[in-house]
Design goal:
With 138 residues, the protein is α+β, with helices and mostly antiparallel strands. It contains 7 helices and 4 strands; from the N terminus they run E-H-H-E-H-H-E-H-H-E-H. A 4-stranded antiparallel sheet has the order 2-3-1-4.
Length: 138
């Protein structure tokens, strides 16, 4: 079974829709095997998004991700990475397919409600960033 990281972002936690997003995740056949609500520090957000450090949106992204709690979780499924990315929808909710999380809940391109790992390498790094092996219950 493959694992991937999911983050329910501040715009969604503030609107109290984490349960609705989790229902969509589970209805899509993905299993939530670890989950916790945290408040990212500036340093944690900077480290997590380090690959974007030289991009114009980096500081705004760090500020946004530290503006309210997030829900970090590990999802498991046969093709968890691909399946979750399809369920999330495109970054821009205006062009996301109907029935995706972002089409249903995102407020904008930047406040797009969820994050998901984009590759096996990213998933391994991102899962290990937030969770130790004792916290992941298969």
């Amino acid at each position: 079974m493959q694992k991937t990281l999911s983050i329910i972002k501040p715009d969604a936690t503030v609107r109290n829709i984490t349960g609705k997003i989790n229902a969509m995740i589970e209805d899509a056949g993905l299993k939530i095997v670890a989950q916790k609500r945290i408040r990212l520090t500036k340093e944690q957000a900077q480290e997590f998004y380090i690959e974007h450090k030289d991009k114009a949106f980096y500081d705004d992204l760090v500020e946004y991700m530290t503006s309210a709690p997030v829900v970090v979780q590990v999802l498991e499924g046969e093709n968890a990475i691909t399946d979750y990315r399809k369920l999330m929808g495109t970054t821009n909710p205006a062009t996301a397919e109907d029935g995706t999380i972002r089409k249903t809940f995102a407020e904008s391109i930047t406040h797009n409600s969820v994050h998901g790992s984009d590759s096996e390498e990213s998933a391994a790094r991102e899962v290990n960033f937030f969770f130790n092996h004792l916290e992941i219950l298969d």
